[in-house]
Design goal:
The chain has about 190 residues and is α/β, with parallel strands linked by helices. About 40% of the residues lie in helices and about 20% in strands. Strands 2-1-3-4-5 form a 5-stranded parallel sheet, sandwiched between helices. β4, α4 and β5 form a beta-alpha-beta unit. The chain starts with a strand and ends in a 9-residue tail after the last helix. The model has no long low-confidence stretch (mean pLDDT about 95).
Length: about 190
C-alpha cells in the first residue's frame, strides 16, 4: 500500500511536518506498506484556489502523489481553534484523487488541552467534494514540541494502533475504491 501524508502547516519548518516524518517512518515499517510520501505545505505552498486554475500547475505533483496513494494521513495544526487555511485550500484543489480512500485525521497543537477543533472542522466540511473516508479514530498531538522526543508510552501505543488501523482500512476499502471509480457522481450531495 502507498500512503500520502499531508502536513498542513504554513510554517517551515513546522511540528506538523516533523510529525508527518515520524508517522511516515512508522507506516513504512508496516508489512503492507510499499511507499510513503509527504506533502509539506510549509515548504511547498499552494497558490489559493481560483476559478482560473492558476493553482493547477503547482498542484500537479501533489495530484500524482495522491493518485498513487491508497491511504491518507491529513495533519493540521490548530490555528485559532481551526484547521489551517493551507489544508482547506489543499482540499479545494483536489480533483477526485482522494475519493473513497481511508484518511486518518491528525491534529497538532502546542497547547496542553486543545487540538480537537481541527478534527471536528475537517469531519464536518473536509469531505464533501473530496470524498475521503475519514477513519472513526483520529490522533491529537498536544504539547507537540515534545511528541516523539520525550518518551510517552501512551502516545506511542495509540499511534501504533491507529496506523495499523489505517492499514487495515486501506486494504479493506480497495474493492470500494475500484468500484467507485466508475461513479458518475463527482460531488457530494
Amino acid at each position: 500500500m502507498n500512503y500520502a501524508l499531508i502536513a498542513g502547516s504554513h510554517r517551515s519548518p513546522s511540528q506538523s511536518a516533523r510529525i508527518a516524518g515520524v508517522l511516515a517512518e512508522r507506516l513504512a515499517q508496516l508489512p503492507s506498506t510499499k511507499k510513503t510520501s509527504i506533502i509539506d505545505l510549509g515548504t511547498n505552498p499552494l497558490p489559493f484556489w481560483d476559478q482560473e486554475g492558476r493553482w493547477k500547475e503547482s498542484f500537479a505533483p501533489f495530484s500524482k502523489i495522491l493518485t498513487e496513494a491508497n491511504g491518507l494521513v491529513i495533519i493540521s495544526p490548530e490555528w485559532g481553534g481551526m484547521a489551517t487555511p493551507a489544508i482547506k485550500n489543499f482540499l479545494l484543489c483536489t480533483q477526485g484523487e482522494m475519493r473513497h480512500k481511508p484518511a486518518l485525521l491528525v491534529s497538532v497543537t502546542s497547547s496542553l488541552t486543545n487540538g480537537s477543533y481541527p478534527i471536528t472542522e475537517m469531519r464536518s466540511s473536509g469531505y464533501k467534494n473530496t470524498m475521503p473516508c475519514f477513519l472513526p479514530e483520529h490522533l491529537i498531538y498536544r504539547d507537540a514540541e515534545k511528541v516523539f522526543i520525550v518518551p510517552n508510552p501512551v502516545i506511542e501505543e495509540r499511534t501504533q494502533y491507529t496506523l495499523e488501523l489505517l492499514a487495515h482500512y486501506t486494504q479493506a476499502l480497495g474493492t470500494v475504491r475500484t468500484w467507485a471509480q466508475k461513479s458518475p457522481y463527482l460531488f457530494g450531495m
